[in-house]
Amino acid sequence: MGLLSEGSPLSWEKTKELAEHVRKHGITQFINLYHRLKDRQGDILKWGDEVEYIIVKFDHDKRTARASLRAKDILNTLNEREAANPDTVKALWRPEYGSYMVEGTPGKPYGGLISHFNIVEANMKFRREEVEQLLEPGETIMSLTSFPRLGCKDFTFPLSTPDPQSGASRSLFIPDEVIYTGHPRFRTLTRNIRCRRGEKVAINLPVFKDKNTPSPYIEDLKALGDRGESQSAALPDHVYMDAMAFGMGCCCLQLTFQACNIKEARILYDQLTPLCPILLALTAASPVHRGMLTNVDCRWAVISGSVDCRTREERGLEPLKHNKFVIPKSRYDSIDSYLSEQGEKYNDVPLIYDPAIYQQLRDADIDHLLAQHVAHLFIRDTVSLFSEKVNQNDDVDTDHFENIQSTNWQTMRFKPPPPNSTIGWRVEFRPCEVQLTDFENAAIVCFVVLLTRVILSYQLNFIIPISKVDENMSRAQKNNALNEEVFHFRKDITTQETPPQPKAQCQSAKCGSNCAPVYTAMSIDQIVNGKKGEFPGLIPLIESYLSGMDVDADTHCTIQQYLKLIQRRASGELLTTAAWIRNFVTTHPDYKQDSVVSESINYDLLRKAADIQSGKTPCPELLGHSVVSKTQESIPSAVEKIYPCL
Ligand code: GLU
Ligand code: MG
Question: What is the pLDDT averaged over residues 116-120?
Answer without folding.
Answer: 96
